[in-house]
TrEMBL record:
PROSITE patterns: DHDPS_1, DHDPS_2. HAMAP family: DapA. The record marks 49, 80, 84, 106 as: L-lysine inhibitor binding. It comes from Endozoicomonas montiporae. Homotetramer; dimer of dimers. This is 4-hydroxy-tetrahydrodipicolinate synthase. Catalyzes the condensation of (S)-aspartate-beta-semialdehyde [(S)-ASA] and pyruvate to 4-hydroxy-tetrahydrodipicolinate (HTPA). Belongs to the DapA family. GO terms for cellular component: cytosol. One of its GO terms (molecular function) is 4-hydroxy-tetrahydrodipicolinate synthase activity. Pathway: Amino-acid biosynthesis; L-lysine biosynthesis via DAP pathway; (S)-tetrahydrodipicolinate from L-aspartate: step 3/4. PANTHER family: 4-HYDROXY-2-OXOGLUTARATE ALDOLASE, MITOCHONDRIAL (PTHR12128:SF66), DIHYDRODIPICOLINATE SYNTHASE (PTHR12128). It is an enzyme of class 4 (lyase). Keywords: Amino-acid biosynthesis, Cytoplasm, Diaminopimelate biosynthesis, Lyase, Lysine biosynthesis, Schiff base. The gene is dapA.
Amino acid sequence: MITGSLVALVTPMTENGDLDWKRLHDLVEFHIKEGTDGIVAVGTTGESATLTVPEHCEVVKRIVSQVDGRIPVIAGTGGNSTQEAILLTAEAKSLGADACLLVTPYYNKPTQEGLYRHFKAIADAVDIPQILYNVPGRTAVDMLPETVARLAGHRNIAGIKEATGLVERGRQIRDLCGESFAIYSGDDATGMELMLQGANGVISVTNNVAPRQMSELCAAAIAGDRETATAINESLDALHHKLFVESNPIPVKWVLKEMGLIQEGIRLPLTPLSQSFHAELRAALKQATEQVEPA
């Protein structure tokens, strides 16, 4: 089971929107050095919605090759077309990904039965560990715990990224699916509490800019050390919230640019962070980094 702090990695781009392979390479090494436990490639934060299929597959290919088994790589392969999701998942397997992350179908708003059949079809078709991804705030569909439980017994469905921000939802899924089914928080602000109550990690946006702190936070929370986890989480709390002042990944890409780790590249229809939010993002970053300076 993959556990800990898993970064929902941004996809670096140049100012004209081309993929920035050099910065992608550097980001991967940065995360390995700073203790990130796993990389999620081309998820929502990686702008999967605006990458072409060849670009999508090339990003996964390069990350898997570079990581070379040092930490797990989870490929985002979801879609609102079941057949497209199967094709992307099969390609990720052929490229050597350790697992796949599959978002609930967006825009077409399937029923709970449709969600069950969608994910079962992908799991039947491709023999690779698959993590369900429930994020109703972006997809307009909420996969209920009872539907997750129907899927949890499939040999290829390993867990869920639960991004409702509802801690009670995580407890419901754990009760229905058992301890062998992995639960990852998809909400940084409530991730600590979910892990203290038995979740296996966080697929994190905050990890992009504070990987060492997030790794230490997850390790403490999974171990049940509330005092240590709370102290770290308090220093990150402003980042957890301010990284969503505009649609993800707008704020996190701006912060990474401020840190000198990427260029200011993002693809339409997303646009660079509004000037009015610059000061509060800088303050949140300062709060997080000041907490980890040597004594």
